[in-house]
Amino acid sequence: MFKHALSVAILAAVSSAAWATGDCPIAQPAPKEQWQTKEALEKKLATQGWDIKRIKVDGACYEVYTKDKNGRKVETYFDPKTLEELKK
Predict the structure, then answer these.
(1) CA distances for 59 relative to 3, 40, 46, 47, 52, angstroms
(2) DSSP assigned state of 32
(3) Which helix (H) or strand (E) element contains residue 73?
(4) What DSSP element (H or E) covers 6?
(5) Neighbouring C-beta atoms of residue 69, cutoff 10 Å
């Protein structure tokens, strides 16, 4: 019985971690049909000189992986509806 309860507890913890939103600061996300595309964000940032390595969805945000002018890795969060920068 104890092993079963422990297995359920571990499974619940792993499942909730998969749904965690990381550092995305958006509390009330816009519906997905209102989101702009990752390609639109990539195009916007490329015109601003960003060296984009990856864009992914993190909870209710787009998380962008780039390198700064010193070559250090940087993670920046963007509102997927407005494409505004939220947090580095």
Answers:
(1) 32, 19, 23, 26, 20
(2) G
(3) strand 73-78
(4) helix 2-18
(5) 7
Summarised one tens digit per residue, pLDDT across range 41-82 is 999 999 988 889 999 999 999 999 998 778 889 999 999 999
In the chain, the amino acid numbered 61 is C
- The pair phi, psi for residue 76, each rounded to 5°, is -130, 140
Query: Would you mind telling me the total number of residues written for the chain in this entry?
Result: 88
Distances from the Cα of 62 to the Cα of 7, 34, 35, 49, 73, angstroms: 33, 13, 10, 18, 16
- CATH number, domain with residue 74: 3.10.450.40
Mean pLDDT of the chain: 80
Helix (H) or strand (E) holding 75: strand 73-78
Indicate whether 11 belongs to any domain.
no
Q: Would 13 be classed as within a structural domain?
A: no
